[in-house]
Amino acid sequence: MRTGLGWIAVALGISLFGPTEPVFGRTREASIVESAATVLDEIMAIRLREIPESLLAGAEGVAIVPDVVKISFVAGLRRGRGVLLVKDEAGAWTPPQFVTLTGGSVGYQAGVQATDVILVFKSRRSIQGVMDGTLTLGADAAVAAGPLGRNAAAATDADLKAEIYTYARSRGLFAGISLDGSALRVDHTANALYYRGAEASFGGSSSNEPVPLPASAVRLMERLARYSGSSQPVNPAPADAFRQPAVVPRPEELIRHELADQSLELYAILDEGWKAYLALPAEVFEGNHGPSFAALSQSLSRFDTVAADRRYQLLTRRQEFQATHRLLREYVLAQNPKVGARLELPAPPSDSPPDRR
């Protein structure tokens, strides 16, 4: 591969021969991959309104983010989890890597709560931008609404000068949106869970045999190859193409992204009043800089208050609350300016007897 984008496959010894799934059933990550395949199938099945095959054929990568949802207590903010697939030097699609899409909802149609988003990347530069940490749409790469239909050579952006073309669908219909300012990031935690799950179901890594890719990943790669008219077989890239590791975020950033995802599961079971009370700072979900320690401490105090009150056991016994509470506590600890600070102590003892007064 041209820029070392498929490091996970080799790091875990993954192969496409003999696809497998984790033995303990479908994981959240596998569900995302399967949903991505469904979204792609449904959009490509819309006669005369599908993504042009020629656009996919010339693409360097495709990101599919099902169910980008509005976070109601954070004005104008949406967040979704999906996958990014890129081409290797031979033009074959490589295994999906997990991504998050976070950003404002300027341009979203009124009343739209969930939107499926597909991003078609035309340049390697924009793909590498994602791999390097965070790609901000519109700022780091030019974005435009993508053309529709097999014969839509350039229905929008006539000269196809944009680096990324966007497609969004809500309730089966294409939605007019603007993704400018939205951030696309690699989800390293989800990558590890998904591909290590495949390794575990194959009996661990003690064998020198390559670990098969999860079946859901193979199905998605095959679908994208078919829709892009690729003649290349679905196959992993050569081992020497994966030697450059991806940029791994700082530990507190990993906690922040996991907290953002987990909190959405909690908010899905709460009414508006509880969402507002247990709301996390907006910076947890967006931007390159996390929230202040004071704002985090205030949120943690509210979670602690609820956890200590027996009246709310129906909530506090739920896994969604407990996991969010735990991650918030870990994130506060990681952000605590006092952690690792130099201790202010008196002078060390001298050779004389210690003062016991």
Note the overall shape: elongated
Number of domains: 2
Order of SSEs: HEHHEEEEHEEEEEHEHHHHHH
Class derived from helix and strand content? alpha+beta
Rg, nearest Å: 23 Å
Number of DSSP strand runs: 11
Give the oligomeric state of the chains in this entry, treating copies of one chain as homo and distinct chains as hetero: single chain
How confident overall, as mean pLDDT? 77
Q: What characterizes the major β-sheet? A: 9 strands, mixed
Distance between the termini: 71 Å
- In percent terms, what proportion of residues is strand? 15-25%
Helical proportion, percent range:
25-40%
Poorly predicted runs are: 1-25, 106-112, 154-158, 200-206, 236-247
How many alpha or pi helices? Answer: 11
Produce the secondary structure layout:
Layout: H1 7-11, E1 14-20, H2 28-44, H3 53-57, E2 61-71, E3 77-86, E4 97-104, E5 114-121, H4 124-131, E6 134-136, E7 143-145, E8 164-170, E9 173-174, E10 183-186, H5 188-201, E11 211-214, H6 215-227, H7 251-267, H8 272-277, H9 293-307, H10 313-316, H11 319-335
Parallel strand pairs: 1-11, 7-8
Antiparallel strand pairs: 2-3, 2-5, 3-4, 4-10, 5-8, 6-10, 8-9
